[in-house]
Amino acid sequence: MRKLLCGSFLLLTLACTSASPATSSDRSRYGSWSPDGSRIVFEREVDGDFEVFTMSSDGTDLLRLTHSPGGDGLPRYSPDGRHISFNSARDGERRIFVMDVNGKGVRALPRGAGFADGSAWSPDSKYVVFDSGIRGSGVRELYRVRADGSELQRLVQGDHAVYSPDGSQLAYCDGEPGGYLGIYRLDLETLATERISRKSDPDFLLDWSPSGDLLAVCSSRDHGGEAMDIYLMKPDGTDQRRITMGEKDDCPPSFSPDGKKILFTSWRTGREELFLMDLDGSNQMQLTNQPPRGLP
Questions:
Q1: How sure is the predictor about 6, in pLDDT bands with cuts at 50, 70 and 90?
Q2: Cα torsion at 58, 32, 261, 19 (round to 10°)?
Q3: Distance CA 142, CA 131 (A)
Q4: What is the pLDDT of residues 175-184, one digit of tens each?
Q5: Which among 84, 172, 234, 296 could disulfide-bond with 161, CB atoms 3.0 to 4.6 Å apart, if both were Cys?
Q6: DSSP character at residue 110
Q7: Distances (CA, A) of 172 to 3, 29, 258, 288
Q8: What does the DSSP 8-state code read for residue 179?
Q9: Under a CB-based contact definition with an 8 Å cutoff, are residues 119 and 96 in contact?
Q10: Residue 85 CB coordination number (10 Å)
């Protein structure tokens, strides 16, 4: 099985409106939901570069938000629905930016140890957690900063964190020397950490359900490390079950605000596209790059 940083999967794979489903010859990936569930924000390839787009949750009403030569990706809505965080190399080394939901008011957040990749909002929209690392070091660290850019704080070694719905914990991925990646929990008051996935399972890239009773996790445990599926587990690591059964990567997952559906990126068509499914893995449907229907 492959042993890699959580972010390595993303790095290795690393204005337009339509009333038809989002359709393009390029890739669409890494989606997340608006707080009311009406829209999805994601990154889409445009002329070899990635930009931030939104669309309706049924794949229609495509809207481009960024126009940057530095590549913009991994966008996330703030829980109050007012802002979107994303990473970009528009100013040189990749870092986290925040913009209004209409793409205006773009501003950079402070840097951590070096380049930054994924970000997550606290439930009250006051804080952003992001991972940062120095290229070639093999180490990522989690930082927390106020959304206004103040009070930057290093938290712990780790990568691609998500908040618990009550804001008291983070779930994130990290590795151990000579071991596989796994899912950990961090208590934000005591900064105590605990590994919750089995040491034999290479688990990473996750989301926490709105009800707080489930984690959706990517793992290559059943493919000899060569492809990833999505699994559900309780926040203590128990009651694990696989909900995608493909031979290509299905990852990463994002719970809908009502907790009934999961948005995910898949390679099953031969390139990255966004798909939607019910919580048990049924009713899977492709949202992006569907067959053209009357596009201009």
A1: low
A2: 0
A3: 4
A4: 766 566 899 9
A5: 172
A6: P
A7: 16, 20, 22, 28
A8: S
A9: yes
A10: 24
Q: Please tell me the predicted confidence (pLDDT) of residue 26.
A: 76
Task: Give the bridge partners for 51, in sequence order.
Answer: 44
Alpha carbon of 153 to those of 118, 131, 189, 244: distances in Å? 16, 12, 13, 37
Amino acid at 182: G
Residues belonging to the chain: 296
Residue with tokens 């006051």: 126
Other C-beta atoms closer than 10 Å to the C-beta of 281 total 17
- The residue behind tokens 């991972």 is 131
Domains of the chain (ranges; CATH) run 6-286 (2.120.10.30)
Q: Identify the CA nearest to 71 among candidates 54, 92, 56.
A: 92
* Tokens representing residue 88 in the block: 């970009």
N-to-C CA span, the chain: 46
Give, as one character, the DSSP assignment of residue 135: T
